[in-house]
Write a structure and sequence with these properties.
Layout: E1 3-10, H1 37-44, H2 48-56, E2 58-59, E3 65-66, H3 84-89, H4 96-100, E4 103-107, E5 112-116, H5 121-129, E6 136-144, H6 153-164, H7 171-182, H8 191-200, H9 207-211, H10 223-241, H11 247-271, H12 276-291, H13 294-301
Amino acid sequence: MRRAVKLYAPCYYKKFTCVADRCRHSCCIGWEIDVDEDTLERYRALPADCGKEILQSIDTEDCPHFRLTKGERCPHLDGRGLCKIILSLGEDFLCDICREHPRFYHVTSRAMEVGIGMSCEEASRLILTEEAYWDFCEIGDVDGENDLSEFDACALRHAIYACLSETALPYGERLKRLRKEYGVTPSRYSDSAWRELLSSLEYLDGEHRALFGCYSSAAKVSCGQEIWLERALAYFIFRHCSDACDKESFRASLGLALFFERLFASMIETQGECTLSDAVILARILSEELEYSEENTEAIKSFFLN
């Protein structure tokens, strides 16, 4: 039965806002943008003088979506990088995917949680600069349901965060402790096997296949850069482990998170003099290519399943 349940989020979530025309990698370019049925009906109900252009831009065959223009741009993105629908009608007239991106939701044993995905550059910047990634706060109620299973993934996540944030230990030692305690490690297979897997995946941008070819389980970064890895790993765990329904799925999801951390470390190491701005871009690419493809994430998680 669906009812009002509490909605929680990492506290940094409340700091997020779209930077619109200041974004260097607009989510309005290069993505097919589906239009949900409720929003489509709202467009159809608009007066002809303002609804005609919107309706003519939508392909209603199969799943309704906006027809992208030259350069794979949303037809409602103006020359300044701003949304013409927001400018003329307001955010209430955005379709679900535009209004929600880069948010994601999952159901836990406690309630429901929402986060922001690193495929968005501004979200990536917040995640990599947020100190208290372990702090969650209640942000309201939402229509949904609780996961009534006895397995409590959030309790395990809390324990992992306690270990991960134990700064008295070197970062590498914290990773070793997590791998040992939960019986999962990206180095279970050879680096060449992981690179072969990465090469076999599907990519939005083919050039990223070569970028991910730098993977090394032994990648090392400077002490100042390790904090980016810690915060990124905390995000990967939050996103992929929190809704696990049993011990085995949790372990596979944790393996995925640890693998992403090692890949991110490898990308930073290969970059050389990597600035925070560089790291934000690398995190966005990793998230966009791997996290947002269920086929890719499942292929990686399969390496961690018994």
